Amino acid sequence: MLTLLFDGVAYGMLLFVLSLGLAVTMGLMNFINLAHGAFAMAGGYILIVLMQRAGWPFLACLPAAFVLTAVAGALLERTVYRPMYGKPHLDQVLFSIGLTFMAVASVDFLMGSSQQNVQLPDWLRHRFEFGSGALMLGMGAYRLFIVAVCVALALGLQAVLSGTRFGSRLRAAVDDPRVAAGLGIPVNRIFLLTFAMGSGLAGLGGALGADIFGLDPSFPLKFMVYFLIVCAVGGTSSITGPLVAALVLGIADVMGKYYLPKLGAFIVYVLMIAILLWRPQGLFSREGRK
Amino acid sequence: MNTSAKLLAPSRWRGWEVALWVLIWAVPLLFAQHAALVNEIAILALFALSLDLILGYAGIVSLGHAAFFGVGAYGAALFAKHVMPDPLLGLAVGTALGAVLGLLTSPMIVRGTDLTRLMVTMGVALVLLELANKFDGLTGGADGLQGVVMGPLLGQFEFDLGGRVASFYSLAVLFIAFLVLRRIVHSPLGISLQALRDNRLRVMAIGLSVPGRLAAVYTLAAALAGASGALLAQTTGFASLDVFEFHRSADVMLALVIGGAGWLWGGLVGAIAFKVLHDLISSFTAQYWTFWIGLFLVLLMLVGRERLFRPQQWFKRGQP
């Protein structure tokens, strides 16, 4: 029971890191980026390639996945995303689905369509057990590691957003880009930086989650729904909303798959529809926003 | 030209529209060996037409239109298997099931933003997919529903292996749906829908019921999607979980966008272009055809349809 809860939390934290970039682009640029999963997949494959082919240690691969996907995100933002900002939502959705299709087919071509396995280092394969019976808590070292990394990231991001000059400029740009630009805030550069950060986080999340989610070329399509659920349910105006939504989703998904395996993801979808009908703007949105 | 004449002008049949329909009917007669492809195109066109009604005319973004398609397909297949094999009755059942589901889900699309609508429509399709997977005693689960035998059409024409009867059947349904829709989108209801798409607040202010109109058009589109699903199940004699999958909703959206949303021919042109493109590309790279369709989409969206298909505008300055 507790073990399941812990697994759910780990799963949820991963989803949070993966979706955060999407939440920011959605809230900031009002851009529905369905290609977000492609960045996560890129991070996962960077990890695989560096570890298996170049023999890098696991811990060195994680920052590499972050940096490389962030750079890719920045390049793409500059070249193809920028012209799409003012377009209608439908165009953005189709554009990013197109990008996703291209990413899926390219990875299929380059890496093959089979599922990739991550060779975890030995110190992450332990398992700790506490208590007994129904209250037994079993924690895999790897999941513990994930939770630790994600909590650190969440705290760090919260500090950056609320405490630094960049954070307050970002929040100003989210609330009203035109007024922010009028006050001399370089909105475009903030967009670029934020997009790169979001992509990098997705890459990092993809690298961390490669072992748990399973990594194959259809990854962006399979998990796109989950990322979107997190953003739609959590709202895009704060960092807390997506965090809570991701945790709820993670726990509901793990529990649901354990107790009612035949129903699969049914519970998650019904829950999402119910929440969205109840609060169409997401659980934690501020009232009165567009 | 005064305003009412301007509104009425597009409702008149043009010469090229009649000519195109004659051409479309001639295709299965002249190229009998491609009848199966014609059938597929007609089904996709009907599906795209129904999406056009809600996307192009009412402005509702939906990524879960496959829900109605799938319900129609399973409804028709189960009806043929357990009740009676007559195709027309099965088609009516599939259409009715689609309409009922559309009516039930229409309150969900009235509220919220584009993102919410996107998620809710997608969620409905996914829930149905999971349900169809769960009740595998009824639907056959992942193996698909097998053993669907259709009776002869109108009691006379047996469905043949080459798909000639099927292609005429689907084309006839498409033609009737096109005529009906053409009438509807130029009626006061259709015109108020376009007004609603362009400015919802003003439509509310002049005293029209927005939720009522949205529910009506959503139900109608769902019924048509159900009919196209029923056609697919009847002409292939098979229904599987595939009918609810996300790629169905995405494909039909692609077809519609290629053809252009907001005019009825968009669905037809798009379906033809999409299927032909699909056949062409997969004939030389079967596995990676999604790359090319993705590239095409990205270019289409970046450059804009207007400019991509009208090269003479490339060298003009300013907004087209």
Q: What's a concise summary of this model?
A:
Chain A is mainly alpha-helical. In chain A, about 70% of the residues lie in helices and about 5% in strands.
- Briefly, what CATH class of chain B? Mainly Alpha
Taken together, the total number of domains of chain B comes to 1
Percentage of helical residues of chain B? over 70%
Percent range for helical residues of chain A?
Answer: over 70%
Mean pLDDT of chain A: 79
CATH architecture of chain B: Orthogonal Bundle
Oligomer: heterodimer
Large-scale geometry of chain B: globular
Structure description:
The complex is a heterodimer of chains A (290) and B (320). With 290 residues, chain A is mostly helical. Chain A contains 11 helices and 2 strands, in the order ααααββααααααα. Helix content of chain A is 72%, strand content 3%. Chain A has a two-stranded antiparallel ribbon with strand order 1-2. Chain A starts with a helix and ends in a 12-residue tail after the last helix. The longest helix of chain B is centred in the C-terminal third of the chain and has 27 residues, at 210-236. Chain B has 15 helices and no strands. Chain B is an all-alpha fold. Chain B has helices at residues 3-8, 15-30, 35-57, 66-82, 87-105, 114-134, 136-139, 164-185, 188-198, 200-205, 210-236, 246-259, 264-284, 289-303, 305-309. Chain B has one domain (15-284): ABC transporter involved in vitamin B12 uptake, BtuC (Orthogonal Bundle). In chain B, α4 packs parallel to α6 (114-134) and α9 (188-198) crosses α11 (210-236). Helices cover 71% and strands 0% of the residues of chain B.
Blueprint (SSEs and pairs):
The complex is a heterodimer of chains A (290) and B (320).
Chain A: H1 2-29, H2 36-53, H3 58-81, H4 89-111, E1 127-130, E2 137-140, H5 141-163, H6 165-175, H7 177-182, H8 187-213, H9 219-234, H10 240-259, H11 266-278
Antiparallel strand pairs in A: 1-2
Helix pairs in contact in A: 1-5, 1-8, 1-9, 1-10, 2-3, 2-8, 2-9, 3-8, 5-6, 6-8, 9-10
Chain B: H1 3-8, H2 15-30, H3 35-57, H4 66-82, H5 87-105, H6 114-134, H7 136-139, H8 164-185, H9 188-198, H10 200-205, H11 210-236, H12 246-259, H13 264-284, H14 289-303, H15 305-309
